Amino acid sequence: MNCFKNKNKVEVLMTPLVYTETDTTRMIEKYNKFWFLCCCPDFWVNKVDFSDTFTKLYRPAMMAIHVIMVIFCFSCTLSLWTQKNLSESQQSDRLAYGASAPIITIFYHFVILCYKDDVRKVLYKLVVVLKVDHNDKQAEREMMEQSRLHNGLFFSSCVCNMVFVGLYNCYLAVTTDATFITCISAWPDIEERSLPAGLTRVVVYFVWFAHVVRNMGVFLIIHTVLLCLTQQYKNLQSYFEDLNKIFDETKLSQEEKELKYEVKFKRGIEQHALTLWCVDETQRVFKITFSSHVLLWCGLLISILPDVMNNDDHTLKMLVSNAPRVAAALVGLGYFMWPAGDMSVEASNLPQAMYGSGWQCCYHRSSRQEAGRVSHDASTETDRNESFRPSYILLRNLRGDCQDVIFPFLSILLK
């Protein structure tokens, strides 16, 4: 797919880019506001829809927020050596936060910021360029419903986890005279009860909350790209299936129908090629993040096991303290795997849609015989009808193309 590489970048425009608005573009523009607030600016081709005064003030503040989050992550990791005399539950929390905070900040947030231009280009191709010729409204509605469902599950599980941890530890601090310990930092010591120590713990909790919310924006970017890829494969299926309608037109002669079909079919192949380019770019851009994602959330589940297995008192208290983290870990894994699995299914259905696009109705210039031989004998390329050369190449490579859409780590997990 080298023909699509090394093209001019799709830049963020100072004036709005003119394109046909769809439900998907409106959804992306709403998400773009959330991404901007999460310190992920300029992931869409148009400027974020905030006032100029706010954007001018907030953009410089992003650097300060990045510095605060780096200090927070460093403090969480340093607590592995500074904090002693912790309970088993606190040790599990310290290990989970101390390992996950720097991974999320570096391999999620900072990595995706490095690929900002590439992500913006892929999103623009999927949402605008590939929808010029055909946009299946049913596939678009299904994509938006999936987005609302997945985001609702993931965001609610993360926020509920944060709120429950805060309320639970606040309850312990009030009823048992314990210190307010949520996310364990390098300082203060868990037994220190001075006023600065107490205020620091409250500040750490809200910084931790902001850290989680800010990284939700990164997750949303990746999830949106995966959903748009799934929608595009559905869109391609309906495009090729609709080609059969050409032969139902009564005002065209058979030869005109065949010529129109060939033009449309070739255009569909170009769209398929561009879709595969988007898949390749998605794999390249998110490769580090996907690998980190599996290690992170599986590691989080493993870190919870010692607290559960070593606790002889299997009470409701123990369940309440661990259930939010388990739910967040499982939903976090599924948040990327759900759309990736759907994409693999839709990509596997695309060859059937292409093959049933209506070539069997072509016979005026022996096209039907040529296309039929292509599907049964892909080893011979000589003496083909040049107008159907794209379909020959396509049918020969359909199986390989569909395998390309499964990301490396998911192909291992789903075997």
What does this entry look like structurally?
- The chain is mainly alpha-helical and 415 residues long.
- It has one domain.
- The protein is built from eleven helices and no strands.
- The chain has helices spanning 23-37, 52-82, 88-114, 116-127, 137-175, 195-242, 254-309, 316-355, 367-376, 389-403, 408-413.
- The longest helix is centred in the last third of the chain and has 56 residues, at 254-309.
- The relative contact order is 0.11.
- Residues 1-10 and 366-415 have low confidence and may be disordered.
Summed up, what is this model?
The protein is mainly alpha-helical and 415 residues long. The chain has eleven helices and no strands. Helix content is 72%, strand content 0%.
Structural class: mainly alpha
Shape, per Cα inertia axes:
elongated
Number of helices: 11
> How do the SSEs run, as a string of H and E?
HHHHHHHHHHH
Chain-averaged pLDDT = 81
The major β-sheet equals: none
Portion in beta strands: under 5%
Count of strand segments: 0
Give the termini distance in whole angstroms. Answer: 27 Å
Number of domains: 1
The stretches of 5 or more residues where confidence is low (pLDDT under 50) are 1-10, 366-415
What is the C-alpha radius of gyration, as a whole number of Å?
26 Å
> What level of helicity do the residues show?
over 70%
GO cellular component, one term: membrane
GO molecular function: odorant binding; olfactory receptor activity
Membrane topology: Multi-pass membrane protein
Pfam families: 7tm_6
